[in-house]
Amino acid sequence: MAITRYGVEGGQGTGGQHLPFSRAVEAGGWLYVSGQTPMIDGEVVERGIVDQSRIAIDNCLKIMKEAGYGLEHVVHAKVVLTDARYFQSFNKVFKEIFGEHPPARICLVADLVVDCKVEVDVTCYKP
User: Fold this and answer.
1) Which Gene Ontology terms cover its molecular function (predicted)?
2) Alpha carbon of 45 to those of 51, 53, 55, 56, 123: distances in Å?
């Protein structure tokens, strides 16, 4: 089974920090997308939870597209929010984006190592 790594050169995090992991890894029809935050060009976009949620999910979708996967291939999502009060707003964005293809999901509240409100990762499958 071949393993394909996307972004093995590592991305750029806040403050220009080198990120020492792949953006995604594909093996046997599975694609594991690393956790995405509301970053554009290595900097967190300082906005509310709705905008940050859209950006974090969009960052996942861009990586999925690069690997040849679409929304219909997402089987599971993990979501970390920094405040439980963001749950309803995040759900609205999630439903807008995944409406016809809702994946299984876990959502939890925890501190993030990046100063933002949300982080999202997805697991996709395409036979």
Assistant:
1) deaminase activity
2) 9, 11, 8, 10, 24
> Which strands form 24-27's sheet, in the order they lie side by side?
3-6, 24-27, 30-36, 118-125, 74-81, 104-109
Cβ within 8 Å of residue 88, ≥6 positions away: none
Could you tell me the pTM of the whole model?
0.92
Question: Is 98 within 8 Å of 71 (Cβ atoms)?
Answer: yes
d(CA 47, CA 62): 20
pLDDT in tens, 26-55: 999 999 999 999 999 888 999 999 999 999
Best CATH choice for the domain 3-125 from the list 3.40.50.450, 3.30.1160.10, 3.30.1330.40, 3.90.550.50: 3.30.1330.40
Beta bridge partners of 105: 77
Cα–Cα distance measured from residue 56 to residue 74, given in angstroms and rounded to the nearest whole number: 15
Give pLDDT tens digits for 47-81. 999 999 999 999 999 999 999 999 999 999 999 99
